[in-house]
Amino acid sequence: MTSIKRVPLDRIRPAIDPRARRSEPFPVDVEDRGDEFHVSADLPGLRKQDLDISVRKNRVRITADYGDESESGTYRRRERASGEVSRVVRLPVWVDEKHADASYDQGVLRITLPKRERGIDIEVS
């Protein structure tokens, strides 16, 4: 008779679902479009006021607050995440913070970050 060893689902899930391997709090895509970067983040179930974005040099910090509607109550099951999550995305070059733009629609945050001009012209005297 063959014996079957039971393996908890959380141990095999990374093998069948690539998203399970991710240790980041939410997925982010960074697209290089030549003169600017487009950053997209999946953040469903939030309002615009629940998001905070900061840009410094070549880093973008995205913070999302999944507030909890009710701290009190007797729960039989509680799986929905609550609290604050944050992620820093490092870009290969500095960006122009003053001309950055962001929008949030249907659970997707989109950030446009123009690349900063590099170098200066030096006049020879």
From TrEMBL:
<dbReference type="InterPro" id="IPR002068">
    <property type="entry name" value="A-crystallin/Hsp20_dom"/>
</dbReference>
<feature type="compositionally biased region" description="Basic and acidic residues">
    <location>
        <begin position="7"/>
        <end position="24"/>
    </location>
</feature>
<feature type="region of interest" description="Disordered">
    <location>
        <begin position="1"/>
        <end position="30"/>
    </location>
</feature>
<dbReference type="InterPro" id="IPR031107">
    <property type="entry name" value="Small_HSP"/>
</dbReference>
<feature type="domain" description="SHSP">
    <location>
        <begin position="19"/>
        <end position="125"/>
    </location>
</feature>
<protein>
    <submittedName>
        <fullName>Hsp20/alpha crystallin family protein</fullName>
    </submittedName>
</protein>
<dbReference type="InterPro" id="IPR008978">
    <property type="entry name" value="HSP20-like_chaperone"/>
</dbReference>
<comment type="similarity">
    <text>Belongs to the small heat shock protein (HSP20) family.</text>
</comment>
<dbReference type="Pfam" id="PF00011">
    <property type="entry name" value="HSP20"/>
</dbReference>
